[in-house]
Specification:
Length: about 350
């Protein structure tokens, strides 16, 4: 137990320093600071999938602008902004968010060493969407937001002056009523998506409905509906989700400085062409807001893991809760699950 506690204390209070190697110094002289930063950002140690040429060029362009202005390299991380309700820790953050914050500093540390203006990471919460797509209450969403910010305050005590993490809610970027107005403007695209629904294979439809079912909570009145009526609700939720990636909506978000504006580099937790694909911690790619954090102990090694709800159910009999010394005075941090291999 002492070793577990020491590991967690180190993750929180003793953030690793990165020292420039002779190879780093030679790289800066040979290719310049901007390209050296690019190499650090795209290092295979943190990146989880290949990058298309367009994404590489976008990242280089963003770095170049920031370096020319001596401004921090800025990353934008869109997140769900909620805790999956099936998890016992919901609606609050837990060790998964802890591991993610520690991991993001490790990702930034090599950049901080080669670039004095530093790094800024902006978590952009899409919690306003989950009132529609997941039927989460405002109270549940606020509980997640408040505890994420509270957890972040513990880490900030150890951050160097040239590193910062910011948590933003997407709803903060809209005037009253503006969000709904834009959705209505994008509504015709929902109609066209509905026409395409029947063109999907049965397996594609089933997969989309299953995803909506995992995220959506039926109200007490909706629970009384027939299976067909529930299916129609889930289909509407699926089509609304797809509508969020149409050009009208994405164009509007771009104007709101949401993800790509101001030369921010987008970070994603799944493979795609629009953002840098990183892990959520060293041994996981699970989106941390739909997972829970545990530690895996293999002899002398201790490895942070973020498990999805499905993964958690598969190994729950192997997880042993251990008490944690007074480290974080918040819900869900008095104990941690440990899997010993």
């Amino acid at each position: 137990m002492r070793k577990i506690n020491q590991f967690l204390k180190t993750e929180l209070n003793s953030l690793p320093e990165y020292s420039l190697s002779p190879q780093d110094t030679n790289s800066i002289k040979k290719v310049g600071v901007a390209e050296c930063i690019f190499e650090k950002i795209t290092a295979r140690k943190f990146r989880r999938s290949s990058m298309p040429p367009e994404l590489k060029q976008n990242i280089r362009n963003s770095i170049g602008v920031k370096v020319n202005k001596s401004e921090p390299i800025t990353f934008a991380v869109p997140i769900g902004g909620y805790k999956k309700r099936e998890l016992a820790c919901a609606p609050y953050v837990d060790w998964s968010e802890f591991f993610t914050l520690a991991y993001m500093y490790k990702f930034a540390a090599p950049i901080l060493a080669v670039y004095a203006p530093g790094v800024a990471i902006e978590y952009v919460s899409n919690e306003i969407d989950m009132e529609i797509l997941g039927n989460y209450t405002r109270e549940e969403l606020k509980a997640y937001t408040d505890t994420f910010k509270q957890l972040l305050s513990y880490f900030k005590k150890s951050f160097p002056v040239n590193f910062k993490i910011i948590y933003r809610e997407m709803r903060e970027q809209f005037a009253p009523g503006e969000y709904v107005e834009c959705l209505e403007e994008a509504r015709p695209d929902l109609d066209s998506l509905l026409k395409k629904w029947n063109e999907l294979s049965k397996n594609e439809q089933k997969s989309k409905i299953a995803k909506a079912e995992r995220n959506y909570k039926f109200s007490s009145d909706e629970e009384k509906l027939s299976d067909n009526e529930k299916y129609e609700i889930l289909k509407r939720i699926t089509l609304t989700h797809d509508m969020y990636v149409n050009p009208i909506w994405l164009g509007f978000l771009s104007k709101k400085n949401y993800i790509r504006n101001d030369n921010k580099i987008p970070i994603s937790y799944y493979h795609g062409n629009w953002g840098l694909h990183l892990g959520s911690c060293s041994a996981s790619t699970v989106q941390f807001w739909v997972g829970t954090g545990v530690l895996e102990q293999r002899g002398e090694r201790i490895i942070p893991q973020i498990l999805s709800y499905k993964q958690l159910q598969a190994v729950k009999d192997k997880i042993h809760p251990e008490s944690v010394d007074s480290l974080i005075d918040m819900p869900n941090f008095a104990k941690i699950g440990v899997v010993r291999c």
